[in-house]
Give the backbone structure.
Amino acid sequence: MRMNWDQLLCDKRVGNYVRSSGAGNSDLRSEFEKDYHRIIGSASFRRLQDKTQVFALDKSDFIRTRLTHSLEVSSFARSLGHNIGQYLIDNDTDPDFTQQTKADICDILQCAGLIHDIGNPPFGHFGEEAIRDWFVQNLKKINYYGKPLTRFLDKQMLSDLYHFEGNAQALRQVTKLHFLVNENGMNLTYALLNTIIKYPVSSLQMHPETGNVREKKMGFFLAEQDLYEEIAGEMGTRGVRHPLTYILEAADDIAYSTADIEDAFKKGFLSYEKLREELERARDRSGIDTSHLDPVEILDHQYDHAIRMGVRDPKLYAVQNMTVRLQSRLLYCATYGFTSNYRRIMEGEYPSDLFAGTYGAWVVNALKDIAYRYAFLSEQILQMEVTAGTILHFLMDHFMEAVLYYDTPEQLSTMEQKWLHLISENYRQVYHIYSRRSTSEKDRLYLRILLVTDFVSGMTDSYAKDLYQRINGIS
């Protein structure tokens, strides 16, 4: 099997989308450029400004949110697309790869960076963990018509809930939940949708123990499996990653591995001295030639340069400029990782990320490890996670109780009706559109449960916190 770019750059959309054409058409945008404008004009994208990257509900004006992170990923992804595309053209790597191909992949990657986190719930990655934890703790305890709820759902439905995943929710968000014209969401191109599916497997096909990146997590819920099959079938990528997904993932890794260090330093969780010490220890432990990329050397050079310039805060200057230079070097590493493994990627056989085997691999791993230990395990973050868990579990408790018998012959209590009407009319409308297409009560029950995760995941940090406080009479 070898994928080809004619299929991979499929600009088809779901439904009866009709392109404007003819002499009277003044819209000269490509389909992928149209995707960009659909995304930046959406409420789902705007909500990212009030969703956590690392530091939830932070009042600082310099800490990254999901929105600023997504903008950075978008920029890095487009740059990588340009670098990789030009390399393939200059070296005649693939005769089917043209300047137009390069232009299209840059547009797709720019868009993919903007929406890669659009399905993440409030309070960062802990929000995902809290929702998963709620299902693990509660599904078996809930009775439905006198029997455990778990007896009414099939294996994949249960697995979807136990492994709730922001990546899968992103596909659901942009294809269904952003209801504007019809039930097809933003109705983005197939090529873009396939690029954001980092894990082309269902929740029953995950095998994180194999080390193959495509099987690490699930990429779609059962509710979107038919859509995935249609998209992947159109492009010849069923069960394998779209090549651009590797580039998107690398851009994400570059953005957050460097940014988390900078933000942790600015928040005071990580001192200059500790950062230097940790980088030096990681460098020595790597056991590889660091002459091509040495963060310690870069940090020292930037600090010395700041001293010579008389910069007021030389440590801040050094950390900020180190991250910028690391980003540039890691872009090169990812470019090399893609181009040197081009054949295996195009054949769907490459199992790793783009940094594997490059001199940037240890750097990315070191930055992630340092940020995790100094920021994610900090007392402030742990306190936030306890608060976030309390909020999300409270909301899941009450909304799930409200939807359990919704759209069934059973009469809802007054309080269940009130909770139900707190759920956005948009999400309830989407539920009814898709539930009417199924004659199975099991499927409708599953969709009602997803109605709750749709609403909760769509909340911003502030909205989730404020709703919790208002309901509990907390001023």
